[in-house]
Every structure is written in structure tokens, then in C-alpha cells.
What we know:
This protein has 4 helices and 26 strands. It is mainly beta. The strands form 5 sheets. A 6-stranded antiparallel β-barrel has the order 6-13-14-19-18-15. Strands 21-22-23-26-25-24 form a 6-stranded antiparallel barrel.
Amino acid sequence: MKSYKKVLIILILICIFIYVCNITLLPDNIILIQGETLDIHTIYGLTVSEITEKGEILQTSSNLNKNKIDKVGKIDLSLNLFNSLKVKDMTVNVIPKTTVIPMGKAIGMKLYTEGILVVGMSEIEGKKPYETSDIQEGDRIIEIDNEKIENTDDLINTVNASNGERLQIKYVRKENTKTTSITPVKTKENEYKIGLWVRDAAAGVGTMTFYEPSTGMFAALGHGITDIDTYDLIEIANGELVTTNILSIIKGEKGKPGEIQGTIDNGVNIGKIYKNTSFGVYGNIYNKTRLNISKENEMEVALRNEIQLGKAEILCELEDGKTEKYEIEIQKLFKNNNEDNKSMVIKITDQRLIDKTGGIIQGMSGAPIIQNGKFCGAVTHVLVNDPTSGYGVFADIMIKQMKEVE
């Protein structure tokens, strides 16, 4: 009987723990596009109320949650347990509907990290000066001896000027700032080194997804740029959008993704990048003439409940200055997915594109998806075992990422 009671108590505690976790996992801030439904996943006993600055309740969950929100602006919510005990505050920012110009243009990107990124380690004269420092690949060094480190030259000069004296290092790991110290080792060339391989920039070629005329903002890729060594999303200080020249197309095949090969060596700067996220790269355009932007191609952004299974098209550039539309089919929709950039499964059905590329290839990420005259999303991934199939991210997610207030 006693063991039965213990089991019952444990089960009750587990239920309470799960209940509390479900509440704490609810976001503090939500961004909606005008006309979207407020869809807060409440659990038993939890109600949603809109409150004024004075704390007055305006609406309850019966006529607020699960309904379309047409009023643009900020909505303050209170989540209450059984209409009496407040458990969480939440802010909903409703942004106005917008129109964009889908681009599909091959573009180059240069990203500069905030601080310098550690990408490896090596012995110096048989010693490992970093061994007790706890610094790991993927960490970003931002200061040495209270001096900002903005690029690799800063690091080299600071370490060489140390004359072998111990250095105090401030670094960032997954948004947590830490401090440590390393004593440089003198090499046979009379230089001082700390045994860390670092990088302060990254570059690549992808596809610009859209341009928003009302703000001059752009979006590209539909996924983030990760470091080639650490595979982590690159934390950037800033970046540049540059023109690119397409050199060749490597056709994809089963088990071997293809690639758009391009160069940005002689590229012209046309914009600034300010954000690198899991849902794309974002910034502002200041040189529109290089992009051949046409107001005639401006269209509405589709909300995800407007996207349907069936025929659609993508827009992409495979030859310099020649952007074309290709037919695809949207085969699956994951309308409740806000966690990653795999919102829909798409399949290339246009034989012209299959003949050119074999399907979806690297560098095509960001190609805009259009259905019924509306911008629906962007290509993000290819299925390695079937290059004609892949994933796309919803348009509303990209718009929200672009508009998100830091």
C-alpha cells in the first residue's frame, strides 16, 4: 500500500512538472502578420486575457485566442490559471500586411563576425598554451586585456605585443560571456602565438528571396549561414551584399548534391547585411540599379492558411542576368511548424530545371516560391537521396524574422 502511494505521488509530481514546463515554454513575445490567427496553445485551466496599461482586462480567451487579429500594433496579454492566478505576461506585436518583389537572383554575401571565431587548435613548439583555458571551437574572442578584438590582425598584433606575458581573454559561448587567460608561446621565428586558429569573416553565394519596396529591406537564403568548420550559425557584427558572376552549374544526382558555382571577387556592393538567422539573411539595399528590380512584379505575401497543396513555381537565376520561373509541386504543409525552416515539402516538376540542375542544388536556397500570384516562401533544403525534392520555409516566417525587433 505504501509503495502504491509513492507511485501515485510520483505520478502527480510528474504531471505537475509537465504542466509547469508547458507554461514556461510559452514565448514571452509573438509576432503576427495582420489577419493571422492568435493561436496560443493553452492547457487545462489556463486562460488568455488582453490587458490595458492600467491592468484592466479587455477580453478573455473565448473571443481573443484562436481568432484572427486585424488590429495592427502591440497587444499585452496575461495568462491566468483558472481566471485568478497570473502565471505569465505575453506581448503580441501585430505587423501590417506587406507586399514584396520576389527576386530569385544569385547574390554574394560577405559576413563579418562580432569578434573572431575560434575554428581550431594546434600545438606551438610542442606546447598547448590553450589547454587549461576552456576555450573551444565555436567560441568568439571579443577582448584581450580589455582591448576589443575585431579581426584576426588585432589578435596577432596583441599576442605579439605581449612578450610572453599572460593574456586575459574575454570570449562568448552560446550568448554567455566568459573570461580566461592564456600565456603565449614564443616560436622559432621570434613570434608569440596562443595556438588558436581563428576566422573573422565568411563569404558565399546564394539566392536573394525578395525585396520589400516600402522599407528597402531584403531577405535571402531562407536558412542561416553556418561556419564551415564548427557548423554553428555565424554571429555577425555586419555584412555586405555583393553582386556575383555565375561560373558553372554542377548537376545534382542521388547522394551527391549539385551546386551553383559563382565568384564574388569582382562583385559590387549593393547592400548591408544586419542579421543572420536560422530562417535567412536580412538587410537593406542601397544600390537597386544592379538588381533590375521591377515594380510590376510586386505581390502580396501569402499567409500560411492561404497556401495549398499542388502546383506552384519558383524563381531562380542559373545564368548571369537571366532569372526564370520553373514549375514545382507543394506536396506537404506543416502549418503549425514555427521551430525550423522546413515548413513544406516541394518537388521540382519542370523538366527544364531537372535537365539543367538535376533538381534543387546548393546556391538555390532562397529561391522564392510563388502560388496563385502570392509570395509563399523560399526553397531551403534538398533531399540528398532525391534531388528533385526538398523543403521550403513559409513566407510569413521570413517576414517576421526581418521585422523582428532586436
